[in-house]
Amino acid sequence: MFGIGTTELIVILVVALIIIGPKKLPELIKNLGKGLSEVKKMSNDVKSTLDAEVSAADNEREEKESREKEEARRKAEVEAMDKARAAEADEIEADKLKAENVKAEDKAETVVEATAESGPEGGKA
Fold first, then answer.
1. Could you tell me if 50 and 42 are in contact, meaning their C-beta atoms sit under 8 angstroms apart?
2. Domain extents for the chain?
3. What are the b/e assignments for 75-114, b being 16+ CB within 10 Å?
4. Is pLDDT of 123 > 60?
5. What is the pLDDT of residues 36-82, one digit of tens each?
6. 28: which residues sit within 8 A by CB, 6+ positions away?
7. pLDDT tens column, 80-94
């Protein structure tokens, strides 16, 4: 128990019997047992409190990690949507430029056709 062998325990009991006396020894042993019981109970209480605190700290850490992962996922999702919107805006701008070029080409063709129909004189008849 406390690193005490059988011989040492017998010596301790004999010394206690001589010093305390046979009448008070059973009462002392009873009180010693109660004291050890209380110490064990307090030890178990401390252990359970520490276990609860460690468990709470672990839960808090896991929740924090979960929140950080969720935040990172949302941030990545927002960035992806921003990139998609930017690509879509670039595509729309390219379509507008293409449409403007087509209109300019149509106007140029119309001017060329009108010039060709009016003749080399520049339209003077």
1. no
2. 6-106
3. eeeeeeeeeeeeeeeeeeeeeeeeeeeeeeeeeeeeeeee
4. no
5. 999 999 999 999 999 999 999 999 999 999 999 999 999 999 999 99
6. 16, 20
7. 999 999 999 999 998
Tokens of residue 123, six digits: 């339209």
Token digits of residue 101: 């070029």
CA dihedral angle for residue 87, residue 88, residue 91, residue 97, rounded to 10 degrees: -120
The dihedral region occupied by 122, where left means phi > 0, alpha psi between -120 and 50, and beta the remainder, is left
3-class secondary structure, 17: helix
Matching residue, tokens 């008849």: 125
Write down the pTM of the prediction.
0.46
